[in-house]
Specification:
Blueprint (H helix, E strand, L loop, with lengths): L1 E6 L1 H7 L3 E5 L6 E2 H12 L5 H8 L1 E4 L2 E2 L9 E2 L4 E5 L6
Parallel strand pairs: 1-7
Antiparallel strand pairs: 1-2, 3-6, 4-5, 4-7
Length: 91
């Protein structure tokens, strides 16, 4: 099963795509922190622009805002959709 990461605005630009799919590991659930690390690794952006943008994003997992929860504690179910929403101005 896989997890989908949807990237918006500056995150989309830094990642080079609006959506990415990641396979979940066979040995158990994947956390939001694992997904973010995988996206950075895929881009080859360790410490670069994508890393900076994703560190400032708000996340929504399957329609549920993550808020201030620790990303390592947010477990992603098979088929989850994660939205990465960078801060933006305006309304």
């Amino acid at each position: 099963m896989s997890v989908t990461l949807r990237l918006w605005a500056a995150a989309k630009e830094a990642a080079g795509s609006a959506e990415q799919t990641f396979d979940q590991p066979a040995d158990g659930p994947q956390s939001l922190a694992d997904l973010i690390a995988a996206a950075i690794e895929r881009r080859g952006d360790d410490g670069g622009r994508l890393t900076g943008v994703l560190s400032r994003c708000s996340y929504v997992v399957d329609g549920d805002p993550v808020g201030r929860r620790d990303h390592t504690s947010v477990v992603l179910a098979p088929g989850s959709v994660v939205e990465a929403l960078p801060p933006f101005a305006g309304g």
